[in-house]
Amino acid sequence: MPDTSFSPRSVDEIASYHAHVYFSPATASHALALRTALARRFSVRLGRVHEAPVGPHRASMFQVAFETALFATLVPWLMLNRNGLSILVHPNTTHPRRDHVEDSLWLGTPLALLPERLPETQEHADMAGPVNTTPDLPPVS
Ligand code: ZN
């Protein structure tokens, strides 16, 4: 008998996305170059560079918060330009732990997270927040 219990979730649950770009001392220059190149092409909310692990992240990284409409250009751009870096792309819904661990995708080598540092649920999904980049190049260049 087919399993009839499957009830799909709607992508409308996704309020925004994050991309977390991880780096080590050896790849920090790649990560900072990617950060600058990204900021010149995409209207996003770029987080500051965390040299020390923060939250569920066990390596140095910076965060990119972006609107769902940008997924189809920003994620392929990261695919082609990650230059060996590991990048976690996750949706933001009201289930933060699941967003990071079960419903995410990795570009490059996946890294371990500390999911216990994330709440299983929260009342409101994280929005992308105010854009803080001022692109001067088209995304496709
Ligand atoms: Zn995140």
From TrEMBL:
It holds the Pfam family DOPA_dioxygen. The keyword Oxidoreductase applies. InterPro entries: DOPA-like_sf (IPR023389), DOPA_dioxygen (IPR014980). One of its GO terms (molecular function) is dioxygenase activity. Residues 122-141 are annotated as: Disordered. The keyword Oxidoreductase applies. Keywords: Dioxygenase, Oxidoreductase. This is Aromatic ring-cleaving dioxygenase. It comes from Novacetimonas pomaceti.
